[in-house]
Design goal:
The complex is a heterodimer. Chain A is mainly alpha-helical. Chain A has 15 helices and five strands. Chain A has a three-stranded mixed sheet. Chain A has a two-stranded antiparallel ribbon with strand order 4-5. The chains are: A mainly alpha, B mainly alpha.
Chain lengths: 421, 432
């Protein structure tokens, strides 16, 4: 049933905008009253602008006068909030929301690191690397759901990929074979998911749960049966960081983006491929048609089942790649449950990013930033517990899904099995 | 007739038809043309064969990952096959002995009257392990009946357990008759709130409960982690996420003496199963709950407010999971830690579907899961096969239950005429 949305004229302010404006006002007050409570005029926040252990693309530290900066941030937030509340930014609301979030997060870091030093570049670099599996998981979700198959098994596929990558990488001492095995593992689980949900038309959440339980059990089984007894099976070489000549020497940005392992570059490459493929090619149009209206797509001669199989398996390969990041890209071994819910956050990033690869990447980076910020905050010994910062991405996802901030609408036929008549 | 009127006319007809089908389904008389046993067999064949196939595939995995088997096959085919049977026999034998106790020792003890408590320890432990599965399984089954998919069991168990633990240790000098029920009640309420949130969001905004419950799982995990390392932490635990022990007056008493850990929570869970069954099938509310989920149009024409029933279904489901958490904390661990839920929230999806979402059936499938889990510990210590094999078996069981067509193909069974509809289909994640 379609409920008609109230239409607001240009000069009117919708209740949603008013709520947003009110929240912005509160954030401004929060910065002014809570963050900027007891800093004298000569308090200084120091941001280091080069990640630790990096020798190229150096940049000198950034000294910020805490008190004055917090005043500016707070007043800025307050003014934006007031304008939003009274006049409303209309269609630019979402852009303003991002701006406000950035200002608030900046104010927060300035407050947390007052009188101390925070490595801003290190923070961003680790945010990016923590975001990689989330973003890749989100891409997996996009591929599957754009074709009409809900995939909550991303977590399980990643876990299997991480385990296989580590085992094959350790036995062959070849990282590329390890990567191939990881992707294959994810792909095979995806094939099972596709088979269960497309051929047998079972509930796709149940099918995903089957794979998650199986994968958690299987990887833990192999781990405690073999990997713990034979440490040589679980000691894989890792993908090294490769600095891109020239670009890596750019101050600040260079060491953060252009001095990373294959996974970060792969993620950017996949982003471009996926964004272009989904929205600018015939392949993408067909895939989306199958996810939006399979019957119409079928009438036009697109093979719905084949398209769905293809999308889910490609998604599985992606999830396997994301899993390889944990063992082959990050620590060089497999630990039980090492994906720690990143697959589910990937799903959240997908929703937050409105099923669009580029936005999903931004959401993933935001979630990765929350992760790395929470660990920095606990190192700095702030009074705000890191767990609450960790909680934010999940809260934001719920809020976004509820339609309070922005709007999210997935592919129409996502989750429904297709019956050919 | 305008397109809009046509549309509403069509919807009306659909609703009418759906309502008739629903009534037919409810008033369908059992056919009398087959004997009792064939009827019984047709009712249990799918679950039975699913369990059997799951155990069989589990055995295959044990065989294929056992170094002994490969070694034996290198000596010859005969020794190899012998090794296959002995590896599987040992593993499942140890599983059985760990779950039930050894039959010969039980007979011996019953005859001589000695060490009676010792020989019944495994079965008592299995029943202790059955309890959380049963409670969480009931939560899922009730949810499925109301057509909400509660994947948030883990989070609800966490908050329920934490709340119960807090009341359990924070109030001293209360008589047990007040302290224990109060702790349990607070656990139930906490779990209920954690279930209410996604239910309310679904009813109000249409956002799908699956993704919301997953998110709430992580929020609960972080929240509980914060509470257990911060305000609720045990003195001198050195930053480990563990709470103070609950007071003696808040512990669920044991049924027997000490080596037998079976506590009254088990019987309470059985009672809950009967209550939920009664609620679902013998009361008007239970009927409404199921109808609101099963057929929105019919329910709307019957004058039900679907949103309220969705919220109610999620809330009761969450409350049962909260009870599960409280039961674990007050009856088993006596302290809240992050290990309080060993995946009950997810495993019980399989459990509920295995029981066809029937609360009384949940007792049997919870028993199976409890026996498997307890037996697997013995299997691990005796044969070195990791207890994670149980998760793998459970995954297979869930797969076969959810896709009975696989079972029918493998065992050449005829399809039943009336097929139960799939529990819940996700159609998008909702949102406005």
């Amino acid at each position: 049933m379609i409920k008609a949305k109230p239409v607001y004229l240009k000069h009117e302010v919708s209740p949603r905008d008013r709520i947003m404006g009110f929240v912005f006002l509160l954030l401004g007050l929060f910065v002014l009253l809570v963050f900027n409570r007891h800093f004298s005029a000569d308090t200084v926040t120091t941001f280091a602008m080069t990640p630790g252990g990096i020798t190229r693309g150096m940049m000198s530290d950034w000294l910020i006068q805490t008190n004055r900066t917090l005043w500016i941030c707070g007043i800025l937030l307050f003014l934006i909030g007031a304008y939003q509340f009274v006049f409303g930014f209309g269609r630019r609301s979402n852009l303003i929301l991002i701006l406000v979030s950035l200002i608030f997060v900046f104010a927060f870091t300035v407050y947390v690191a007052a009188n101390k030093m925070l490595n801003l570049a290190g923070l961003l670099a680790s945010a990016l690397s923590m975001a990689v599996p989330i973003i890749l998981g989100g891409f997996c979700g996009i591929l599957c759901e754009r074709a009409g198959v809900v995939n909550i098994a991303i977590e399980g596929m990643m876990l299997m990929g991480a385990m296989l990558g580590s085992v094959v990488g350790s036995t062959t001492k070849n990282i590329w074979l390890g990567l191939a095995a990881a992707m294959l593992g994810g792909g095979i689980l995806a094939l099972v998911h596709a088979w269960l949900s497309i051929k047998y038309k079972i509930n796709q959440i149940v099918s995903g749960t089957v794979i998650n339980i199986f994968s958690t059990g299987m990887t833990s089984y192999i781990s405690s049966m073999y990997l713990q007894n034979f440490p040589n099976l679980n000691k894989t070489p890792r993908f090294p960081s490769v600095a891109i000549p020239g670009l890596a020497d750019i101050p600040f940005i260079g060491p953060i983006i252009f001095d990373n392992s294959l996974f970060v570059y792969g993620m950017f490459l996949l982003l471009i491929l996926l964004q272009f493929g989904l929205f600018k090619t015939r392949w993408g149009l067909r895939l989306r048609a199958v996810g939006e209206h399979p019957k119409a797509a079928d009438t036009l001669g697109i093979n719905v089942f084949k398209t769905r199989y293809m999308a889910v398996i490609l998604g599985g390969l992606l999830a396997g790649f994301a899993g390889a990041y944990f063992s082959l890209g990050s620590v060089g071994r497999f630990d039980e449950g090492m994906t720690s819910g990143k697959g589910f956050i990937g799903l959240a990033a997908m929703i937050f990013g409105n099923w669009i690869p580029f936005r999903t990447m931004l959401a993933g980076i935001l979630f990765g930033f929350a992760d790395s910020l929470s660990s920095s905050v606990s190192i700095l010994g702030s009074s705000i517990p890191g767990q609450f910062i960790n909680m934010l991405p999940y809260l934001v996802t719920i809020v976004v899904l509820a339609g309070v901030v922005g709007s999210s609408s997935g592919p129409a036929a996502s989750g429904t099995p297709y019956e050919k008549e | 007739m305008s397109a809009l009127e046509k549309d509403s006319e069509q919807k009306k007809n659909e609703a009418k038809q759906a309502g008739e089908i629903f009534l037919q389904e409810l008033s369908r008389k059992p056919s009398n043309d087959s004997s009792f046993f064939s009827k019984l067999w047709s009712a249990i064949q799918i679950p039975f064969l699913a369990i059997f196939s799951g155990l069989f595939l589990g055995a295959l995995i044990i065989v294929f990952t056992s170094p002994d088997v490969y070694e034996a096959f290198s000596k010859g085919l005969g020794t190899g096959l012998k090794a296959v049977f002995s590896v599987v026999g040992n593993a499942y034998g140890a599983l059985f002995a760990g779950a039930f106790g050894s039959p010969s020792k039980i007979m011996e003890a019953l005859r001589t009257g000695e060490k009676i408590d010792r020989v019944f320890k495994p079965i008592s432990q299995s029943l202790v392990e059955t309890t959380p599965y049963l409670l969480s399984g009931l939560a899922l089954a009730l949810g499925f009946r109301a057509v909400v998919f509660n994947v948030g069991g883990e989070g609800q168990i966490y908050v329920g357990g934490t709340a119960a633990a807090f009341v359990g240790f924070a109030f001293a000098d209360l008589p047990r008759a007040i302290h224990l029920p109060l702790s349990v009640l607070v656990g139930i309420i906490a779990g209920g709130i954690w279930g209410f949130i996604p239910g309310w969001l679904k009813a109000k905004t249409g956002s799908h409960e699956v993704i919301n419950t997953i998110m709430l799982n992580y929020i609960a995990l972080r929240l509980v982690e914060f509470l257990l390392t911060g305000p609720m932490t045990k003195a001198g635990s050195g930053g480990m996420p563990i709470s103070n022990s609950v007071q003696e007056s808040a512990k669920i008493p044991l049924i027997f003496k000490k080596p037998l850990t079976l506590h009254w929570g088990f019987l309470f869970a059985l009672l809950m199963a009967v209550l939920i069954w009664f609620f679902l099938f013998k009361t008007k509310w239970g009927f409404n709950l199921q109808m609101a989920g099963a057929n929105k149009h019919a329910a709307k024409y019957a004058g039900l407010n679907i949103g309220i029933w969705t919220v109610l279904g999620m809330t009761i489901s969450g409350a049962l999971n909260g009870l599960c958490g409280a039961n674990q904390v007050l009856g088993v661990t006596y302290t809240m830690g992050l290990g309080v839920s060993a995946g009950y929230g997810f495993d019980s999806i399989a459990l509920a579907l295995l029981a066809n979402n029937n609360p009384l059936g949940c007792i049997l499938s919870a028993l199976l899961f409890g026996l498997l889990r307890t037996g697997s510990r013995n299997m691990m210590s005796n044969t070195g096969i990791p207890l994670d094999i149980v998760s793998i078996v459970q995954a297979f069981i869930l797969m076969f239950i959810a896709a009975p067509a696989i079972i029918r193909t493998v065992y050449h069974l005829r399809a039943k005429k009336t097929q139960a509809p799939a529990a819940v289909n996700v159609s998008g994640w909702g949102g406005k």
